[in-house]
Each structure stands twice: as C-alpha cells, then as structure tokens.
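Slide 14.
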Amino acid sequence: MTAVEYVILVDEQDNQLGIEEKLTAHRDAQLHRAFSVFIFRQYNNSLQVLLQQRAMHKYHCGGLWTNTCCSHPRPGESVIEAANRRLQEEMGFSTALYTVGNFTYMAKFDNGLTEYELDHVLIGMIKGNSPINFNPQEVQAYQWVDIKSLRQLISQHPNFYTPWLLQAFEISLTNKDFIKENT
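Slide 15: predicted structure.
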C-alpha cells in the first residue's frame, strides 16, 4: 500500500498556507511548492543537460521528456533536501545543488488534474561519464542533450516535452557564473 503524499500549499510569494494531499491539490488546482532539477555536464567541448523520460504510469505527463528530476517537498522538508532526495530516488546519484530562481505556472491535463505550482529551479553538475542508475518506476529513459539544441527540439516537437520544461530550463541557465565555471 502506498503512503498518502502531501504537498505544501503556498501563496504567490511562496509563504506556506498549509498542506494538502497531493492528488487533491492537483485535482482542485491549488498552488503548491515544487522543484525542478537540471543536471549539467561538460562533454566533448559542449555543455549538456540530463533529461529524463517520465515513466508511462505517472499520474500526468507519462512518457514525456522533462528535466533531470522534479517533485514536491514534503511538509517540514526544505526544497534543497527534497531535491537531493528525489535526485537519488529517480536518477540514482547525488551532487551539490544550487537554487537559481523560481516561477509559477499552471497546466491542465486531460485526466482532470492541474499542475499549479510555484516551481523552484535547481542546478548541479556531474562529471562526463558518471553512471546514471535511474529508477524504472519513475523514469523510462534518459538522454544528454546539448543545451543549444534543447530549445530547438522543444520548438519542433512541443508535445514530446512537459509543459514546464522550457520555462524552467531558461531559468536554469541564468546563473552565468555557474555556466562559465563549468564550460
């Protein structure tokens, strides 16, 4: 039996308002705290980002490509703690993560659920050939994509990607010092 998961309800300034069962928050379109992690690597003189293809059975966006990992902090858990936990649970590794910004978005899905999230964007770096031992219950596949190519891929095939990916990706690139130090 799966334990009931809860999300942190917030206002537009990310002040906590309470907690709610995850599926109820998505069914009722309640604004809640979330995060999106982007892991980069330097490979063959190119900066690449690690994308995952969400497992087909996910409650929304199954089979779509998205950032390295994403989820919600649990009540009493910081965004950084939650991001580190989910990176390990989904992709099988850990690395230092840095918060670079946040944004609010809403996406409605055909199954009646709505993502209405204040999404914190985090970045990290791993070495070129570090092993990726993804969890097949969470992730169907992964790929490294050159950061210059990702915008074009999303533009050509938007239905292959999650609705939050492009906006979160653009925020992930705003830390110029991080990008410069790692290219």
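Speaker note: Strands lie at 6-10, 16-21, 32-43, 46-54, 65-66, 69-71, 98-108, 114-125, 139-146.
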